[in-house]
Structure to design on (319 residues):
């Protein structure tokens, strides 16, 4: 197999971890950072102190802020927060293979893979239970790359799969993408359960009903239900809703305890509001997204959100 050239666009925690994954498999890796000062710091310090402290970057991993010079690659991994992806797409050649790695929706609520498909012809998404710090340290993990083009999914699999990271392929692009997007909302709510010390039964009930809410949205949008119960759905829900490392879970805990949010990327906050809007437009029930939105916007206290969720009308489980 010829060595693949992989460029990772976005030098945050997840971009840096994925660059290390591709480096471990022997790819020629370029890590692109938006700010020249950030690229220079990473290049010199050989550590991403802002986003992934304590993990050494190998000398042969190239870091740059030169976007044009980074695009001659076999695979471009787009690893920005979701709000930055639409603009980045306008700068990327339409025929270059892209792997979208963000876990959020476009500003209007559209899945990023659908937005990208309007301009780009070779697309994959990568999503799974992948807390960046653990992946960077080489702790064992698994994830999914989905593409309608099996050759592209296999190319991404070869570029990233190592003894510490199993990569599964899928053709359900929307299902894999949406699992990672929606679990952030449930992780925010799980953080609120933790912050209010509501107990283990409450957490189990929330995660299970959260999965039902995710299923409703995935099915209505044409994703495969089986994908929801895979790594990118249930798997990532378990990791994010239970981990002290998750920013979404931590933000929920802070909201519940009346503490300020820590100023990190919390994708679930915007996603909750978009899901709540979608629920109002379609009449589909998304009660957890609604409660999270009301609490995050300060309209309800966390206890009011809890009471509203518990006192809704009686239902059958499979409704
Ligand atoms: N950190 C994690 O464990 C995981 C994160 N993700 C997802 O990956 C995406 C990126 O997250 P992280 O790397 O964790 O974020 P981060 O907050 O660690 O880093 C974000 C990076 O993107 C840069 N950036 C922000 N806006 C940009 C723009 N418009 N253009 C260029 N660069 C820009 C920032 O300067 C920073 O370097 C998010 O959607 C997140 O949900 C997915 C899996 C795991
Ligand atoms: O998606 C993640 C792990 O799979 C990271 O979650 P947070 O964005 O909540 O830190």
């Amino acid at each position: 197999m010829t060595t693949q050239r992989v460029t990772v666009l976005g030098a945050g925690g997840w971009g840096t971890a994925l660059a290390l994954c591709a480096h471990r498999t022997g790819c020629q890796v370029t890590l692109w950072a938006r700010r020249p000062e950030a690229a220079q710091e990473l290049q010199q310090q050989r550590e991403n102190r802002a986003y992934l402290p304590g993990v050494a970057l190998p000398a042969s991993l190239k870091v740059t802020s030169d976007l044009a010079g980074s695009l001659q690659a076999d695979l471009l991994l787009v690893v920005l927060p979701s709000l930055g992806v639409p603009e980045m797409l306008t700068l990327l050649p339409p025929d270059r293979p892209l792997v979208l790695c963000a876990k959020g929706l476009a500003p209007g609520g559209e899945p990023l893979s659908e937005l990208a498909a309007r301009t780009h012809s070779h697309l994959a998404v990568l999503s799974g239970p992948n807390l960046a710090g653990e992946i960077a340290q080489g702790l064992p993990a698994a994830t999914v790359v989905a593409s309608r083009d099996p050759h592209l999914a296999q190319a991404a699999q070869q570029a990233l799969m190592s003894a510490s990271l199993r990569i599964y392929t899928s053709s359900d692009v929307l299902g894999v993408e949406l699992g990672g997007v929606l679990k952030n909302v449930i992780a925010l709510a799980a953080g609120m359960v933790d912050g209010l010390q509501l107990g283990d039964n409450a957490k189990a009930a929330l995660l299970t009903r959260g999965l039902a809410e995710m299923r409703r949205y995935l099915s209505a949008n044409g994703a495969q239900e089986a994908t929801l119960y895979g790594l990118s759905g249930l798997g990532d829900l378990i990791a994010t809703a239970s981990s002290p490392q998750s920013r979404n879970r931590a933000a929920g805990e802070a909201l519940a305890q009346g503490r300020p949010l820590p100023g990190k990327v919390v994708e679930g906050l915007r996603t909750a509001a978009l899901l709540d809007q979608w629920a109002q437009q379609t009449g589909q029930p998304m009660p957890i997204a609604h409660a999270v939105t009301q609490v995050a916007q300060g309209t309800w206290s966390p206890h009011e959100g809890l009471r509203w969720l518990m006192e809704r009308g009686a239902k059958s489980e499979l409704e």
Notes: The longest helix spans residues 173-195.
